[in-house]
Amino acid sequence: MEEKFISVIIPNRNGSATIGLSIEAALASDYPRFEVIVVDDCSTDGSVEVIRRYPCRLVRLAAHGGASKARNRGAQESRGELLFFTDADCLLAPGALAAANRIATGQGPDAAVGGTYTRVPYDAGFFSLFQSVFVNYSELKRKDDPDYLATHALAIDARTFERAGGFAEEFMPILEDVEFSHRLRRRGYRLMMSPDILVQHIFNYSLRRSLGNAFKKTKYWIVYSLKNRDLLADSGTASVELKLNGLVFLLMALLILFGTVSGTGAAALVAAALLLAGVNVAVSKELLAAFSGTGGRAFALRAAAYYMLVYPAAIWAGTIAGVLAYFRTTAPPAGRAPQ
User: Fold this and answer.
1) Which of 132, 259, 289, 305 is 20 to 30 A removed from 14 (C-alpha atoms)?
2) What is the pLDDT of residues 219-277, one digit of tens each?
3) pTM (2 decimals)?
4) CB 217 within 8 A of CB 174
């Protein structure tokens, strides 16, 4: 099979704690023909000094422009026939580039190929392991027809990337990969996900960082989905399981509130709560199996409790913030009626 020259493009913004590990992992790839391009987005933390220790190409933006601009600049500076985008806190698996070349070459330039996180992250804490399993399961659920390809592992023909216009630079702080994926599909390109294209993510998540990540991503996903009119889509980590999980959480909270106000018997409330929980477990059984298969039963029980009883609180907070942000951006100026 043809071994295309691959340009690995890594945007960096104040990633001195992880960028060295990311470059080392990329350079350790078992693929024979590639270059590593790191685009630094005006870091102030010593990242540039770290990057210069490695035999990679360093491109520096003149002004802070965001991850999309950094990725686009990396593509402009690249020599590769195939572009492989990843992040400064992601470590490429040794076989990731070979798998990307094999699949992309076999599918042709009209297909973009994505990968995902390994189930076990670089750091072994509970919240990091929870997130890595959750993302891996969610992004691989629809391999042949994913809703998006994430930029932590995305391979695309260089000419296709140029024709598609690259990543939107005037966009939200995140989800530029979702917008780019949707734009590719509208233009007739195919999206594919492969379990063979893997990166190990460095999370270092605490409870606060885990819930903060859920809040932030939900907020911007709500804004984008309302504009895109696909709020109920089965979209990677914004899956139908997660949405049902949030709905069950809300209904159980309302049950407790109703029981407190109305004085309804505890037995009836418990029966209703168990019914809702049973539905949720049945719908999420494959995700729960992924928790168990990765971290064992004890981890799976903790992860299930966190996923069903705590995580949805951040999702709902992000949902409310996203709805408010959406209406703020779509409301007409004061004193002016909508056209």
Assistant:
1) 132
2) 999 999 999 999 999 999 999 999 999 999 999 889 888 877 776 667 777 888 889 99
3) 0.93
4) yes
